[in-house]
């Protein structure tokens, strides 16, 4: 295990740490096999975890697909709670484990199922698209889910001028621009509400919610200008959870999987990813010929909860088990499955 990790991480992780983490990873691999488990790792996991124990790594959509296909008894999700819930929604008979109870998400916490029901009462008949970065009960109130990589495709699939898109204010604004819609953020009481069809004949309407990712909201246009001044030829990639101004000032915007492909397939002298910092390390490890710049003062406190130590304990102690009540799961399943079919 040490040799495998060293081959990939020699320039990214100091040797003393690598040896310690390789021992943990070897123990996890052993237990994983004994317990017939599969480990899914999100692109934001730290390099020593990302390049050692997962059977599959990827973005939310890619991992949802893998979760739907697995024949293992246990799914260990190295990501945050809403992702592990999605795996449970797709695999009700399997045990899904999340290594840390603290791996939440500011975006998922920004909206409740009752908020969605209130919006539906105000806009009867308007389809509801919910970002996968939400909890199961919110998904259950939705017509369809989306990820940052397929959001525009999902919205367009609905063939509706007016769409409710929850809960990320910035992702909604970016998708509204991409799909030619006007974005509105209605106050529900009292309600000066846009009417369905207000934009008909011109632009459609997207009804948003003021949730934000506490990581991506921190990047600014000034950050981009400062980096460009120092590195004039840098390629800057912004996640669509960044503000529309930041996305407009970047060279490329896409989900984490699309960012990885962009770096692999292009030839800029430097790259800057406006997303969780660990992803820059993971891309640097796989592409030693590419120079990655990092703004690592911005970290996701939730993703960073997932460690090799906690993953080992998750397998040893069968913790923390993700449960979703069947009534909610069955409704959420329809929204997630509909998204997966769209691709
Ligand atoms: S990066 Fe943002 S959206 Fe992703 S888990 Fe962290 S807080 Fe949530």
Give a verbal description of the structure.
There is one protein chain. The protein is an alpha/beta fold and 343 residues long. The model has no long low-confidence stretch (mean pLDDT 93). The longest helix has 20 residues, at 15-34. The chain has helices at residues 2-9, 15-34, 47-50, 60-69, 81-90, 113-122, 136-140, 151-157, 169-178, 221-230, 244-249, 256-265, 277-286, 308-317, 326-342; strands at 37-42, 56-58, 74-78, 95-97, 128-131, 144-146, 162-166, 181-184, 204-207, 235-238, 252-253, 271-274, 292-293. The structure holds iron/sulfur cluster (SF4).
Number of helices: 15
Largest sheet, strands/sense/barrel: 5 strands, parallel
Bound ligands, named by name, code or SMILES: iron/sulfur cluster
Largest beta sheet: what is the strand line-up? Answer: 6-5-7-9-8
Shape by Cα distribution: globular
Question: How is this fold's topology laid out?
Answer:
Blueprint: H1 2-9, H2 15-34, E1 37-42, H3 47-50, E2 56-58, H4 60-69, E3 74-78, H5 81-90, E4 95-97, H6 113-122, E5 128-131, H7 136-140, E6 144-146, H8 151-157, E7 162-166, H9 169-178, E8 181-184, E9 204-207, H10 221-230, E10 235-238, H11 244-249, E11 252-253, H12 256-265, E12 271-274, H13 277-286, E13 292-293, H14 308-317, H15 326-342
Parallel strand pairs: 1-2, 1-3, 3-4, 5-6, 5-7, 7-9, 8-9, 10-11, 10-12, 12-13
Bound molecules: iron/sulfur cluster (SF4).
Residues 80, 105-107, 133, 213-215, 276, 300, 302-303 line the site of iron/sulfur cluster.
């Amino acid at each position: 295990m040490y040799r495998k990790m060293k081959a990939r991480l020699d320039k990214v992780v100091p040797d003393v740490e690598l040896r310690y983490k390789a021992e943990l990873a070897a123990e996890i691999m052993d237990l994983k096999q004994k317990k017939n488990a599969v480990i899914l790792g999100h692109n934001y996991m730290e390099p020593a975890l990302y390049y050692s124990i997962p059977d599959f790594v990827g973005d939310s959509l890619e991992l949802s697909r893998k979760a739907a296909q697995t024949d293992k008894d246990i799914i260990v999700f190295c990501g945050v709670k809403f992702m592990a819930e999605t795996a449970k929604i797709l695999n009700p008979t399997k045990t899904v484990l999340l290594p840390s109870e603290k791996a939440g998400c500011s975006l998922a916490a920004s909206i409740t199922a009752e908020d969605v029901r209130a919006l539906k009462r105000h806009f009867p008949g308007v389809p509801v698209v919910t970002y996968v970065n939400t909890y199961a009960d919110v998904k259950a109130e939705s017509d369809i889910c989306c990820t940052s990589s397929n959001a525009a495709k999902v919205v367009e699939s609905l063939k509706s001028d007016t769409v409710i898109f929850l809960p990320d204010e910035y992702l909604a604004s970016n998708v509204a621009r991409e799909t030619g819609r006007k974005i509105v953020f209605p106050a529900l009481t009292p309600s000066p509400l846009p009417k369905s069809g207000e934009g008909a004949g011109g632009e459609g309407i997207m009804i948003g919610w003021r949730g934000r990712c506490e990581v991506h909201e921190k990047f600014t246009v000034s950050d981009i200008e400062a980096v460009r001044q120092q590195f004039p030829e840098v390629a800057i990639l912004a996640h669509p959870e960044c503000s529309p101004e930041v996305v407009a000032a970047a060279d490329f915007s896409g989900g984490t999987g699309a960012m990885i492909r962009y770096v692999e397939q292009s030839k800029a002298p430097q790259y800057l990813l406006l997303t969780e910092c660990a992803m820059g390390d993971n891309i640097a490890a796989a592409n030693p010929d590419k120079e990655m710049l990092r703004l690592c003062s911005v970290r996701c406190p939730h993703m960073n909860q997932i460690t090799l130590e906690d993953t080992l304990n998750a397998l040893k102690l069968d913790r923390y088990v993700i449960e979703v009540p069947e009534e909610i799961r069955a409704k959420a399943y329809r929204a997630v499955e509909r998204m997966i079919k769209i691709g």
